[in-house]
Structure formats: C-alpha cells, structure tokens
Write a structure and sequence with these properties.
337 residues, mainly alpha
Amino acid sequence: MELFLLAVVILASGCFAFINGFHDVSNSVATPVRNRALTPTVAVVLAAFFNFIGVLLSTGLAILLGETIIGLPAGNAGLGILLAGLLSACCWGIYTWWRRMPSSSTHALVGGLLGAGAASAFLGSGGVASGDGLVWRQLFLPLLLSPVLAFALAWLAVYVATWAVRFRTPSEVHRGTRMLEAVLAGAFSLGHGMQDGQRTMSVVLLALIAAGQLADGAGIPPWVPLFAAALLSAGALCGGWRISHTLGSRLVRIDPLRGATAQTVSSAMLFLGAITLHIPLSSTHTMAAAILGAGANQRFDTVRWRVANRMLGTWAATAFASALFGAIFYLALDPLL
C-alpha cells in the first residue's frame, strides 16, 4: 500500500508541475507577445526550453525545502499529507486559470500542505513539522514581500530606463526594447524553472523520505530533476493564454520600454532568490507586481485598478483556500491510508 501511495503522490506531483507550467507560462510571454517582440508560438517554445534548463541548473532550493524547512510523519500519513496538498494546489491552479487570474502556485502548494498537515494532526497522525520560525522566515515572508519589492523596483526603474533613452526617437526605443523583451523572456523562463521546478522536486524528495525510499541527506536522485523539468516544460508548451490576456492587456496598457523594465526586475529577483539567497519567490507575484509598477509610472492612468484589485484578492485568498481544500482532501483520504 505504501509503495502504491508513493506512486500516486509522484504522479500527482507530475500533474502539479504540468499545471504549474501551463498556468505560469503567461508570466514569461505576456508582455513580449503583447508588444509584438515575439510571436506566440516562438514565445511558448522559448519559455518551455528555458524552463527545462532552469530546473536542471538549480537543486539547492529543493534540498532546503525537502530536508530542512518541512518535516512530515513517516509512512502513509506523510504521503497522505503530500497527496492532499498537491490535489489542493492543482485544483486552485485550474480554478484561477479558468477565472483568468494569475496566482502563486507556491502559495497554493504551501497552503495545501499546511492545511492537510493540520487535518492530519487533528486526527492524531502527526502534522507538518518545521524549525522554529523557518516556515515564516524562509517561505511566507519572502512570498509576501516579493510583490511589494517588485512593484517599487519596477516603478523606480522606469525613471532609469527613460533617462537612458532620452536622446533616442520613439521608434528607436520601441525597436530596441522589443529585442530586449525577446531576450528577457528567455531569462525570466530560466528563472522560473530555477524557482518553480524546485517545488515539484522537493515534494518528490519528501515523498521518498516519508516512504523510506531515501535517507535524509542522501541528495536528490538523478531522475527527479528530469521528471520535474519534463513536466514543467510540457505544461509551458500548452500555454495558458487566458492569463496572458489578463497580464498583457486587461491589467495595464504597457509599452515595450516598460514591459522590458518589468521583465528585468522580475528576472533579477528570481535569479537572486534561487541562486544567492536560496529562498522561494513566486514568479507570478514578481512579474505581475513589476508590470503594475512599471505601468503605474506614467503621466496618464494606464492601470485598470478594478482588475488589479481582483488579482490582489485572489492572491490573498490563495493560501487560505488551498489550506481549506488540503484539509478537506486529507479528511477524505484518511480512511484509505
């Protein structure tokens, strides 16, 4: 039964990676497609390729999440928590895609795991354990502060960008920044793979440890990064265009200069979080907030604040809704564990 449950958890983690790529590819391609820097087909293929490479380049964050920050009870209880959390995150991802709202897959996964862990602890099977304040310092605090920082940095960076091109004609600026947007689409996708690919890897790592198939400190088996990279890039190839329309057109009317500025800020934050600080950052939060910040820095109002407020409401509800779903899924699965 335990090995069967392990296989189901790994299958569910693959579904989560696919939905993650399908849902979040919009962050990479929305502004370059909107500003005609790339065609939709080329943008999606580029995003899928660099997502694949990004997952393979960074495993340190997955090890940190899987072996240091989060601890699960051994056996079926731990596997049940992972399965319930994954189902919750997948359902929330599909729901927000249908509603055309960008949302954080990381928030959804963490919320689902914590909700399932709380339900498991309530039933006496043990819950999610972590070091003193580690979940808050290493997970929630970076995820909550990153959109505020991305908005502020993008808003300020527009001043730098407009000063740098002050002697160029509008046509020259648009042509040059469109080329930059095409390059930054690949850079952001690489950062997205380095960040979000680690979520799937850490879940598989936790599942192997809970099932007794991997000892603590043994590292990540070679097949796990390939598994995560393949599913994430496959999801990106399918392309979630409903959310791309929200980011590229409905949220803000953004020109190539401000689009490139938003991409620069968000890409730099993802690289810094994955490589230097080893903290999880939401690609959705950083890109959407950077687009808002860059679009707000104009002489005329281009931000559709009604759509922005709906997006912020979705962000606020993500962790709570996914925690509730995670608890419900675990209670439903408990008789089978």
